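forwarding from the other thread:

> can someone predict this with S-adenosylmethionine?

sure thing
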Amino acid sequence: MLRSYVRLIPALAITGAIVYSILQLEGPFTIQLVIPSGINVSYPQPQIQYVPQQQVVPEYQAPLQRKLPSYPPHQKPILDAIAAFNGYEETARRFIAKKDSKYAKANPRQQAMMRDIGYEAHFDRAQKEITVNAQLVRDIVAYGQDLYGVRAGDEDGLDENYGIVDEALGHLVRDWSDFGVTERSQIFPPILKALQEHLGHDGKKKILLPGFGLGRLAHEVAEIKDYQVTANDLDYNGILSYHYVLNRTKELFDHQFYPFNLDWTQQLFTNTRFQGVKFPDYKPSPHSRANVKLMEGDFMEVFAPEEYIEKYDAVVSLFFIDVGENVVDFLEMIHRVLKPGGIWINLGPLKWGGFAHMQLSAEEVLQVADKIGFDVNHDSRQSIETQYARQPHSLIKFVYGMSFVILAFD
Ligand SMILES: C[S@@+](CC[C@H](N)C(=O)[O-])C[C@H]1O[C@@H](n2cnc3c(N)ncnc32)[C@H](O)[C@@H]1O
């Protein structure tokens, strides 16, 4: 046992150096390095017992067939997303081919060893899984083209951005599969609880969720009686995936894909990289479907018209306020759309991109909120540690330390 730890020392030193350099770059999150202990490492169970509001819906709802009116004004972002999805298969195959060509440099004796332990079979397995993933991506695109009335080929010549496809597929795992239960159970219950505590249940309540991602939280909020959710996002790789989940699902766990099959580093177990993930693990009830309205586009533009001033009883921002260029713009917009007496619930890290005009601390965000006119409920402040759309068995875990806070507007 001691010898196997000694052998781990160089690997830990290199990983430590990588972790250190990431910390230098990114700042406000912590990284936990998980060291294999020889003890069976199982998928961590959620600490909070988390029961989705509605697990099974008796009737399959007819697919949403209307052509959304936002096309063609949003044509370019939709086409960008389709171009990115279309590039998935080629990029993924190139990725595996590159690993294969590196492997070809190992000597024959080493390759025989690799064959013995089953390593060589990974290339074939990954390629087969890419075929399945590529079909899913084609299905998402086909449904999106139908929904938005986009002609196939209109996206020709646009850039293929693999990163945003990878992000959308990761979100699919986090929001719509039971692989995401742990992450969701850490962050959804405090939000759902705070909303109900503050808004109560006397009459209809309007809740705005900017940056809704793939929509799971929006639908869980809309399961609550009389709660009407307006969701907003500008990323069509996420939006098209969301439409697909919502409207191309007959039964729970109808779809399967292999989101980890290109991740060969930081693997504790041999086969977890090839794990299939089924989705969805939850089907929104008819009530929830009827009470989530998606408004596509930039939060700052979509809600700028006067009709949105003082329209919402609550705004919920989850992993959102740090994604834009100008956080003060976001905070002022949130304040503007809230009704007097309304609440803003924020949960998220402060992982400002290099493009951010200001990179504020949590204290500074609250000071700015105070200046804008929010009344910060200091009793509501909590720190929550969670991961975000991560592979459960990865040896390296990015744990976001997030602050949770409720701000009321008088
Ligand atoms: C880190 S993700 C979080 C998504 C979701 N809230 C969740 O927790 O899964 C940030 C989301 O904000 C969206 N977003 C970024 N800038 C936006 C903007 N200006 N207007 C609307 N959505 C935006 C992104 O497309 C992305 O879906």
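Residues 121-148 form the longest helix (28 residues). thats all i got for now
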